Amino acid sequence: MNKKIILLIGGPSSGKTTLINHLENEGHICYPEISRQVILDARADGAEFLFLENPMLFSERLLEGRIKQYENAIAEEKMVFIDRGIPDVVAYMDFIGDTYPEKFIEACEKYKYDTIFLLPPWEEIYTSDDTRYESYEEASKIHQFLVDTYKKYGYDLHEVPKTTVEERYQFIINRLKD
Q1: What are the sequence ranges of the domains in the chain?
Q2: Please, which of 83, 86, 124, 177 could form a disulfide with 33 given CB 3.0 to 4.6 Å?
Q3: Any idea where the NadR/Ttd14 AAA domain is (predicted)?
């Protein structure tokens, strides 16, 4: 497997974090989803629900963080797996019906990932918590916005089957060997 930047995408609670953790346990370089950290940082600054209170500021922070992750991944000498990418920011903004500056589109066009794995909505594993605001129905709608956005930017999406984390891991590794 050559040096690549591989992205895991999907709506909330589709198993991305579990899969990223498994990839990391198997010795791969992995970058976690940054939105939880943005939420926790905002709470520390007094904004309890930044995404709901100021979606643009939240999205700008996500965009900055994801660009930094991309740039860090480029500097790595090995393959890097990332939980969510730059186009996710645009997909979420489209989902809530908000507008965004041209720099969001420019970032999606400038920073390109090598391979995208899509984790579909999975009601049986769906959970909510204090940083996940979406219902399962909303998560399913977000999934479609993600699919549409990534396809708009020219990506082929490889859908990961709903199965054990080990089998999902093996699916990804086998697909990367092709």
Answers
A1: 5-177
A2: 83
A3: 6-168
